[in-house]
Amino acid sequence: MEVEVTVEEVTPQVTYPLRRAVLRPDGGEVAWAGDEDPTTFHLAARTGERVVGVVRFSPAPCPWRPRTNAPWQLRGMATDPAVRGSGAGRALVVDGLARVAARGGDLVWCDARGTAAAFYERMGFTVVTEAYDKPGIGPHIGMLIALSST
Ligand SMILES: CC(C)(COP(=O)(O)OP(=O)(O)OC[C@H]1O[C@@H](n2cnc3c(N)ncnc32)[C@H](O)[C@@H]1OP(=O)(O)O)[C@@H](O)C(=O)NCCC(=O)NCCS
Mind listing the pLDDT tens digit for each residue in 71-125? Predict the structure, then answer.
């Protein structure tokens, strides 16, 4: 079932509770290098006042497309398990890609968790690597999407 979500830019601190609950349940650090960089932006999806999804976008060289002009990295994507499958993740990615394009970005890449790869494929990303392990987190795969400059 679709839920009504609004997406807006937020401070990094707004994203930390969901990062902690969903991405670092074993207690890993949730404040990451680059969170406070002025070019980084963070998005929260809300239903009413409740934050149900978060994501971060920041300019960063693409490990697999080194000659891209203006690559950005997607990180810290997480939605509340209670709303999964109802469009919050999609709303965050669609909004984020539009904001990256508006800032002149021409590609977005991510280290996708193996379990989330099919989600990113639904969002238009393509797998560009073999699977690799991120110690303490598990299997990942490189994915990216080219953005049109229109
Ligand atoms: C991956 C994640 C962000 C998806 O969020 P979500 O709110 O469930 O996403 P949506 O409801 O917007 O799903 C959008 C589409 O992707 C599909 N989808 C979502 N998660 C999927 C998955 N794991 N596998 C396959 N399809 C998936 C949905 O069915 C939906 O399909 P549709 O196009 O037919 O509507 C969420 O499951 C999550 O937080 N997972 C745990 C943390 C994680 O792995 N984060 C990514 C780290 S790289």
Answer: 999 999 999 999 999 999 999 999 999 999 999 999 999 999 999 999 999 999 9
Q: Which atom of ligand 1 is nearest to the CA of 85?
A: 11
* Residue 1: inside a domain: no
Q: Is the CB of 120 under 6 A from ligand 1?
A: no
> Quick count: other Cβ atoms within 10 Å of Cβ 59?
16
**Which residue blocks in the chain are alpha helix, DSSP H?**
12-18, 88-102, 117-122
User: In whole angstroms, what is the distance from residue 126 CA to residue 147 CA?
Assistant: 12
* This prediction's pTM: 0.96
Task: Output the domain CATH number for residue 31.
Answer: 3.40.630.30
User: Tokens at residue 109, please?
Assistant: 């890449």
- CB of 116 shorter than 6 A to ligand 1: yes
Residue 63 and residue 122: Cα distance in Å, rounded?
Answer: 22
